[in-house]
């Protein structure tokens, strides 16, 4: 979260698996089957998501995840998303999301202080740049129900500047720069909040 305390986590990426552990949040995606399994845990809350995936081969460079194409995701608590992952435009349309993802992936009524029925997020590439991340290279505009980000991915560097709506007429801004060094197995960067970011491949 913007302005929050520094933390640490573990990210695992292979050609068939994506997993993230951060604080009390865990996300695991098994991409080894035609219907990838997704499981998320936040504290004592846990949810499993059933999916369908019509794959489209996309070159993401050093990120070997086969996530291109059309997706549907259905949870057991009424949460549902459809997604398209393309080379220049990706979109995510969700409804019935549960905390904490409802405020990010679903619209939010700042007057009534409650989620709106659904929300749509998009990532659109404005220009293409050479990058070790293949088709991810370029300048992007990312929009979610509460965030607007300008993202630049070039070479091995990822830069983003975001504005987050936190109340009806209140916004806060932040930026992040992160550079990978595959030979050394490290990544390092900074944020506008004075925090340093570092990672090391295990």
What does this structure look like?
- The longest helix has 4 residues, at 102-105.
- The model has no long low-confidence stretch (mean pLDDT 88).
- The strands form 2 sheets. The chain has a 15-stranded antiparallel beta sheet with strand order 1-2-3-4-5-6-7-8-11-12-13-14-15-16-17. A two-stranded antiparallel sheet has the order 9-10.
- The protein has one helix spanning 102-105; strands at 9-13, 17-22, 25-30, 37-42, 45-55, 69-75, 80-85, 89-95, 108-109, 114-115, 118-127, 138-143, 147-154, 157-167, 170-181, 186-191, 196-200.
- It has 1 helix and 17 strands.
- It has 202 residues and is mostly beta strands.
- The chain is 2% helix and 57% strand.
| Helix segment tally | 1
Question: Which strand order spans the largest sheet, edge to edge or round the barrel?
Answer: 1-2-3-4-5-6-7-8-11-12-13-14-15-16-17
Binned strand content: over 45%
Would you identify the regions where 5 or more consecutive residues have pLDDT less than 50? Answer: none
- The overall pLDDT, averaged over residues, is 88
Oligomerization status of the protein chains = single chain
Q: What is the number of strand segments?
A: 17
In short:
The protein has 202 residues and is mostly beta strands. Helix content is 2%, strand content 57%. A 15-stranded antiparallel beta sheet has the order 1-2-3-4-5-6-7-8-11-12-13-14-15-16-17. It has a two-stranded antiparallel sheet with strand order 9-10.
